C-alpha cells in the first residue's frame, strides 16, 4: 500500500515537472510572438504615418 502511494506521488511529481517545463516553453513562445506582434504594429503605424504625411 505504502509502496503504491509512493509510486503515485513520484508519478504526480514527474507530471507536474513536465507540465511546468511545458508552461515555461509556451511562455517563451508567447513572449516571442508578442514581441513580433509589437514590432509589426510599430512598423504598420510608421508606414501609416509616412503615407499620411506624403498625402499632405
How does this model look, in words?
The structure is a single chain. The chain is mainly α and 56 residues long. It has one domain (1-56). Helices cover 96% and strands 0% of the residues. It is built from one helix and no strands. The protein has one helix at residues 2-55. The longest helix has 54 residues, at 2-55.
Rg over CA atoms: 24 Å
Binned strand content: under 5%
H/E series, N to C? Answer: H
- Summarize the amount of helix as a percent range: over 70%
Shape: rod-shaped
Q: Compute the average pLDDT.
A: 96
Largest sheet: none
Structural class: mainly alpha
The total count of helices amounts to 1
> How many β strands by DSSP?
0
**What is the first-to-last residue Cα distance?**
82 Å
Low-confidence spans: none
| Count of domain modules | 1
Which helices and strands appear, and what pairs or packs with what?
Elements (H helix, E strand, L loop, with lengths): L1 H54 L1
In short:
The protein is an all-alpha fold. The protein has one domain (1-56). The protein has one helix at residues 2-55.
Question: Notable features of this structure?
Answer:
1 helix, rod-shaped
